[in-house]
Amino acid sequence: MEIALLFTDWLGKPVWMWLGFISIVIALLVFDLGVLHRDNREIEVRESLILSSMYISLGLLFGAWVWWQLGAEPGMNYLTGFVVEKTLALDNVFVIALVFSFFAVPRKYQHRVLFWGILGVIVLRAIMIGLGATLVSQFSWVLYIFAAFLIITGIKMLWLGDKEPEIGNNPVIRFVRRLINVTDEHHGKNFFVKKRDPVTGKLAWFATPLFMALVMVEIADVIFAVDSVPAIFAITTDPFIVYTSNIFAILGLRALYFALSAMIQRFHYLKPALAVVLIFIGSKIFVADMLALEKFPASVSLGVTLAIITAGIFYSLWRTSRTGAPQ
């Protein structure tokens, strides 16, 4: 009976596939926090690059397994989603760097914020992808709304350029400060600390800047998920491919952050490339309809996406190679 349950279909795939994926994710999180980062310390760029390479390799190996197990089209859809989500994560890195700077989070505690932030991301993405999958399965026209949204988002990214978000004026920060006690002083690795209330003189729990940074990291991911979830659904509606490609791309974000935050300006022209990718992904749904295609070819989608992002990376590195800043 138990073995039969493993082969039961759930969200389009056997239960054993989902359990296998979840087991890998849990093992990576335990290894990360329990082995690599038991002590709070600064992560150097070299270590960050090594860990990032490991996570990217694992994500690509999982994609190869998807290709072998499910076929070429699901494999290419996974790789396309993985590449798009990984590139979107670069923009997320920039916002996280602003959050850490605003709250003056010491480098040795930044990994702690990112780790718990990733746990929240895994849950939030599962909810959003579950809702998206339900909507698409019940109302196929929702895909056209997603596609139009991606096109508008891409055009908006090209139009606004590198306008920085205003962290200090964020309404979420003001709401949290009204809701709970917040202290402006850091207290080591603690998200909450017990101290005397300056008004009542009684002991009370206060949220530290570390917790406020965690809240903003989660909010930032919700905002970015509004782009990334429609993007992956415009590539494929398979919940397994959608969720696994998203999570594998996000898992390496912690490691990638410490390397990219030190050289984020070198990728100045990657954001316009990403905007073009979003416009392309949104447009291909309408193009497929105009050409009377059942689906836009996965190989073309992957090839065009890789070409645009690669061009953005190399153009950025070329333009910033002499000064280290956009010319």
From TrEMBL:
It is a multi-pass membrane protein. Keywords: Membrane, Transmembrane, Transmembrane helix. Signal peptide: none annotated. It comes from the Bacteria. The keyword Ligase does not apply. It is found in: Membrane. The chain crosses the membrane at residues 15-36, 48-68, 88-106, 113-135, 141-159, 203-225, 240-260, 272-292, 298-318. It holds the Pfam family TerC. The keyword DNA damage does not apply. NCBIfam families: R_switched_Alx (TIGR03718). Belongs to the TerC family. This is TerC family protein. It comes from Neoaquamicrobium sediminum. The lineage of its organism: Bacteria, Pseudomonadati, Pseudomonadota, Alphaproteobacteria, Hyphomicrobiales.
